[in-house]
Structure formats: structure tokens, C-alpha cells
Design a protein that fits this description.
350 residues; alpha/beta; Rossmann fold; 2 domains; three-stranded parallel beta sheet; 15 helices; 12 strands
């Protein structure tokens, strides 16, 4: 039996004979509040008594293992998840390449961390450029591919320590052009396992999928609870975003209610495509916007200045806050609405 059981959530104990001191092992597991399953045929009466006394989850004979083990494991998994903190994953995807999903992801993560004490994790799944570390002015020494290669070594402590961290904001960065290493790509079969480890150790996970849907990063899509699709005010962007939404809903079975739109670099001066036009064209109920301020965005991206620390950021900061408050399941401080906000509302179209 391992000396340290903290990284495990369930023990499956196989009884091969009655010679070993199984009752003592069962007692030790019970002392550590470790859920345990007992597998074996013809298990000795003293072992069965110990299992019942210490409330072992189930005793399954080998002859019925195929039928019963899956059902028992499902029940145990659901019980374990009820007691654990499991962060949702929200994926931020460009409707069209270059629409600003990485910038939006960085802003959402940084401002969320400023607004609350919750642990926010960012996964940079842009395997082409991997720009989140630069956007957030963080120096990463450990990357997504490193974590995938060491997936079996990553316990709860390692998961938190491996990520690049600033206060309650953690980043798992990506190396530029990571997708070009065919040998390395085999490790992406572990991406869903890695995502679950991150989910179980944070309060919210944001995934930057700025390059759109990709075979290597599709596991993140399958376990995401919400999708923020970043578009711009032009026909080409909306056409590609519509195709993305069709792929998500019609092919991948994503519920449309899980999808929200962020119109990046929005300008009221563009009168031929309004927010209502975008809402109707994409058939999505929730549409937010982030105002056009290319110079500010460039300062954040090129210089690595946090949005919250820049001057002239009040408008965009407020718009990002509105998205966070209406989308993210975080414990945010309650603010009394100003007269201005009562009169003119927020930056979303419903």
C-alpha cells in the first residue's frame, strides 16, 4: 500500500488469498477516510466482516466484475465529485483568426483575479503562437507539453506549483509551434486528464482556443461548460463564426445556450452591422462587446502591461467586468449600481 494516499480518491483492493492481513489494510484505509472497493472470489469471512465493519463501498466477485464494476465506479465517482471543488472550463475561441481571443482571454483572467479571491487558471491552447505569457507579462518555464509528458507525476501539489503564477492567477503556457512536433503530439491524448487535474485544483479555468477547433485540443471543447466566441464587425468574421457555431452545435452536440458572443473592437461608427444584426445573424441570445481601442490593446499585447494597470482603460475594463459578472460563476463583491448604469445599462444585448 502506498505510504501517501492524498493523491488518490478511491482504492480498489484485490483479494487473492486469505493469507495476507487484509482486515488490517481495510482498517488503515478507513482511518484515512479512503473509499475502498473489494474485489475477489471466495473471500474469507473475517475479511468480509472487516469490510462491512469499516463500510467498504462494495464487494465485487471476479465473475461479476464486468457487469458490476462499471456501475459501482460510476456511483463512487459521482459521490467523490459531490465533495470536491470542480472548476468549470470556459473556452474562448476566435470566430475568425485574428479577432482577438488571446487578448480577451488575458483580460478576462487578469480582471477576474483582481475582482475576487478565487483561483483562476488559464490554459494557453494556442499551439501555433502561445502568446498568453507575453500578454500577461509572465515568464513561463513550464509548458503545456511538459505537463502532458509528466501527466502521471502530477499530483495536487505539483499541478499548482508547475503553473506560472501571479497571486491567484495561474497560467499553463504553450510553446510556439508546439503542434509541429509529431512525436510530441502523441502526448495530447492525455489532455483531458490534465484538464481534469487543473479543474479539481482551481475555481475557474479559461482555455484560450484562439486558433479555433483543432484535433489536438478538441478534448478541452468536449469538457467545456461555456464558449465565448470572439468576432468582429465585418461580414467575413460573422460568416466564419456562423460556421464555427454550426460545427459546435450540429456536429459536436453543444447546446446553443452555452455559447455567447463577444464583439471585439466594437465601434458605434460602424452602422452597417449593429449588435442586433450580429445577434440575428448568429442566432445567439447573449452578445457582449469590447470597444475598439487598438492602441490600448497593442500596449497590453506588445508591452505586456496588465489592462488593469493602464490609464485610459476605464471603458474596456468596465466592459470586461460586465462579461465576467454575467458569465463567470465567481464570488464577486456586490457593487451598488450608479445612476449612470441604471440609466444606460451594461454592454450586452439580450
Amino acid at each position: 500500500m502506498p505510504k501517501h494516499l492524498s493523491q488518490f480518491d478511491l482504492v480498489i483492493l484485490t483479494v487473492n488469498s486469505d493469507k495476507d492481513n487484509y482486515p488490517l489494510v481495510i482498517e488503515k484505509l478507513a482511518d484515512q477516510n479512503m473509499p475502498t472497493l473489494l474485489l475477489g472470489d471466495g473471500i474469507a469471512a473475517n475479511i468480509v466482516r472487516a469490510a462491512m465493519h469499516f463500510h467498504v463501498q462494495d464487494i465485487i466477485p471476479f465473475k461479476n466484475i464486468e457487469q458490476e464494476l462499471f456501475n459501482t465506479l460510476t456511483i463512487c465517482a459521482n459521490e467523490i465529485l459531490k465533495e470536491k471543488k470542480v472548476a468549470p472550463i470556459i473556452s474562448i475561441i476566435n470566430g475568425k483568426s485574428g479577432s482577438g481571443a488571446s487578448f480577451i482571454t488575458g483580460c478576462l483572467g487578469e480582471i477576474s483575479a483582481d475582482l475576487c479571491q478565487d483561483e483562476i487558471a488559464l490554459i494557453d491552447a494556442d499551439l501555433h503562437y502561445g502568446s498568453l505569457a507575453d500578454i500577461l507579462n509572465l515568464e513561463a518555464n513550464y509548458f503545456l507539453t511538459d505537463a502532458l509528458n509528466e501527466i502521471d507525476k502530477l499530483d495536487n501539489v505539483a499541478i499548482k506549483s508547475m503553473m506560472t503564477k501571479r497571486k491567484n492567477l495561474s497560467l499553463l503556457a504553450s510553446k510556439a509551434y508546439a503542434q509541429l512536433d509529431n512525436e510530441q503530439n502523441k502526448s495530447f491524448e492525455h489532455l483531458e486528464r490534465l484538464a481534469w487535474k487543473i479543474k479539481l485544483n482551481h475555481d475557474l479555468v479559461l482555455a484560450d482556443l484562439s486558433r479555433g477547433l483543432d484535433l489536438l485540443t478538441l478534448p478541452l471543447v468536449s469538457i467545456s461548460s461555456q464558449f465565448l466566441i470572439v468576432v468582429q464587425q465585418n461580414i467575413v468574421s460573422l460568416r466564419e463564426a456562423k460556421a464555427l457555431i454550426q460545427q459546435l452545435t450540429q456536429v459536436m452536440g453543444i447546446n446553443k445556450s452555452a455559447i455567447k458572443i463577444i464583439v471585439n473592437r466594437y465601434s458605434k461608427k460602424v452602422t452597417n452591422i449593429t449588435l442586433n444584426d450580429i445577434k440575428k445573424a448568429l442566432a445567439i441570445e447573449s452578445v457582449f462587446y469590447v470597444s475598439n481601442n487598438y492602441q490600448l490593446a497593442s500596449s497590453c499585447t506588445d508591452l505586456g502591461y496588465p489592462l488593469a494597470k493602464l490609464t485610459e482603460n476605464k471603458i474596456i475594463h468596465k466592459e470586461i467586468c460586465t462579461i465576467i459578472k454575467q458569465t463567470f460563476p465567481l464570488k464577486l463583491p456586490v457593487e451598488k449600481p450608479s445612476l449612470f448604469s441604471k440609466l444606460f445599462g451594461g454592454n450586452n444585448v439580450r
